[in-house]
Each structure stands twice: as structure tokens, then as C-alpha cells.
Amino acid sequence: MVAPTVVCTDITIQLDNSGSASITVDDIDNGSTDVCGIATRSLDVSTFNCSNIGPNNVTLTVTDANGNSASCTAVVTVQDTIAPIAVCQNITLPLDAFGMATISAMQVDGGSSDFCGIVSRSIDVSSFDCSNLGANAVQLTVMDGSGNMDSCTAVVTVEDVTPPNVICQNITVQLDASGTVTINPTDLDDGSTDACGIATYAISNNFFNCNSIGANSVVLTVTDTSGNSSSCNAIVTVEDNVAPSVSCQDITVQLDASGTVFINPSNVNSGSSDACGIATINIDVNSFDCSDIGMNNVTLTVTDVNGNSNSCVAVVTVVDTVDPLINCPSNQFVSIPNGSTYTLPDYFTSGMATASDNCTSAISVWSQNPAPGTLLDPGTYTISVTVEDDNGNSDSCNFELSVGFDLGLHDPEAENIELYPNPAMSSIKLSKIGAIGIENISLYDLTGRLVKEFPVLPGADSQELDISEVASNVYLLLIRTEFGLVTKQFIKE
Predict the structure, then answer these.
(1) Is the pTM of this model over 0.85?
(2) 451 within some domain
(3) d(CA 363, CA 388)
């Protein structure tokens, strides 16, 4: 009853690509014997899989022909030396609002496998920021439980899909002297941000003029480096604080006959302008009189349509060029005693010649030719009176003065002249005049004022004179002959 001699040997086996392996009794029987011969050999375990990786005790049982058996134990070390199959997939990765993103190995694993199972996955790059925009190569490494590894490369396309955080601010701008103003997009930006950087700023309107005064809605659009954009509205308040450009011109004005003169703003305005338009043009003084003769400062004030004002000073020189108005007496006749002379009076001082002026209330400068006091013989004289106002303007008048002897008794023939009827109503008649050579017949009142002159009928011995239009009064009829003067007095009823 001798059992077989069983000799085992330890072995190492490799799992195959299916994750399995098998052994036979020959793999671990290291020369078992029996003198009577071995009938059977058997193993308690002959197949292995991933769950058996490592050392496994395997019992070899040998039975001889007589039914005697013996066993030994061998260590079968199961090994997995087949690397996993790493499979990658490309992904697109959006950055967050902070410009950051992270991934795990599983996100780029496209189905890596191993029959015994993958115990770990790792990637060489897991975090991304704005500097990684675009395609990035990421290596995925997978490892099974036996330490076998495989790698592949995935493309991680990093994208920035977050628009900028746009912040607007309202602003107030001033028009320039030309009535315009231009703004920049950054003028409306109040700290807009983007994690990956702003590429451009744009606004819907950057130019303003007089038509834009007040509040204007302007859209600010901010675009980042990836083309994402965001917008906000800002209010641009346009103001016109530029005063008009004023220009004055000095002028000279003439007082009129009443001693006054009026001007309007356009008279002293010399091209004042404003880019947005002038609303009003005013002057502080618009009327002048004799008290203003000379230079006067006048302030021109120009106000634009937006209430801005500016002023300048013009010199208005007021002059009086209106001559005084003189009134001379009518042609006069005076009679003097036979053989005497007539002392010429001062007609202006005596009030027989009068004058008025727009600015000079009392004329103090006058002259007379012939001069007052001149002794005049009988005859006809032209008397000239000239007056001058305080501003050097002058006027003259002339009248005729006839000086004759009383009753004209120098000519015997003239003494025979008859005048009738006297008193008279509508006409008087002269007779016995044919021989004295009458040159002129004039009618004067008792003040010496010429009232009427009558035409002379040459050679006629008598002549009827129409006095129907003469007022009732006492008159002198002056008859000038070739020998001298004759006067006749009569009453008009």
C-alpha cells in the first residue's frame, strides 16, 4: 500500500487577451512516480481569470493503478501583462465667467478598456484658462490593476463663450465753438470687464451738434477677443455753454429836425455769430437827443438760443447837422423925411427876424449885412441875416428894404397922382400917372410888411388895383417912379 511519490513545481502563467488562462497537470507535475504505475493525475484548479491574479495554490493529486493516491501543492502565479487599450475622445470646453475650466480624465476617455479592469485614468493637463483658447493636446493614461498602462491623445478645444460684463456711465459733454463735439467709446465705459480681455469698444453715435442738445441715448457695445459682445445704454447729455462771438462797429448818427435819433441793434452789430443760432440781439441805449452830442458807449448784448450771452461796446457818435431855421421879415418899405438917412435896425435882436433850432434853444450867434446901424439913403437894399446854432450849423435869409421919402413930394408931377375911392372895399384907382414913369406899385401895412405887389401898365394914365383879398386895415401904397418914391395912404373897409 505504497502511495505514489508526488512532486509539484510552482509556475507562473499569463492571462491571455481574453483575460483567462489554463494549466494542465504536466505544467505543475515535476516528476511524480509510482512503482506500480500512475493511473491518473488531476488538478483541483486548472483555469484562471482576472480574479486569480497573483499566487494561487493548486493541488496535484496522483493515483496509482492500485488506487493509492498522494497530493502536493503548487503555487500558480497568475500574471496580467497585457496593457489596457486607451481610447480618447476630443471635446470642446467652454471657459466659465472667470476664464477658467477644468476637466477629468473621464471626459476625454472615449471607451478605454481592459479585460481585468482599469483601475486609474489620468491626464497630463486638467485645468485651462484664457491662454489655452483653441486646440490643446491632452494625454490620457489608463492603468489596469497589474500596473499595465496605455496612453492616447485627445484634443481639448477651449472656447470663450461668456460675453463681456459691460457697464455704462452717463456723461455730460459740451459743444465747442463750432457747435460740435465728438466722444470716444471709452468715455461711456464705467469699468466693463472680460476674463479673457476686451478687443473693441464701439458706440452707436459719437458725433453731436446743436440738434443734439439735451439727453441722447447711446449704445455701448463691448466685444472680447473671442468675438463675444455685450451692450448697455448710456445717456449723453449735450450742453451748449459757449457764448456767442460778438463784434461791434462804431457808428455816427445824425439828429433829426426834432433833435432826436433812434438806432437798432443791427446798426452797431458787425457780424456777431453763434454756432447754434442767435436768439436775441439787444442794445442798452437806442435813442439819443441833443444832450448826447458827441461819443456815447452803447453795449450790444447777443444771446444764443441756449441762453448764453456775450457783449461788446460800440461808440455811437451823435452829431447835429441840422441847420437852424431862420425867418426874415417880408420885404419892407420905410419912409424918411426928405433929405435924411435911415438907420438900419438889428432885425434879429429886435425880433423882426426869428430863428429856431432842434438843439439850440436860444440862438446867440448871428450876423446882419448891412450891419445894424448902417445909414441908408433912399433906395432898395437886400438885407441878409445869418444865424448859427451851438453846433456850427447856420442858415440865412434875405429880404428887400425900400427906403423912401415921405409922400414922395420930390416930383411935381407925382404930386398930382390921385387915389380913390378912399376908403375902398374891393379896388382902388390911380389916376394922372402917365407922365411920371411908374416902375413898381407895392402895398404895405403900417408895420412895413409887404402885403401885395401890383403889375404896372406901362404908359397908362390910370390903373385900377384889386384889393378884394386884402384884410380890412390901413395901408400904404408905395409907388416907385423914375424920379423917386411916392406913398399914398388909404383905408380898406
Answers:
(1) no
(2) yes
(3) 7
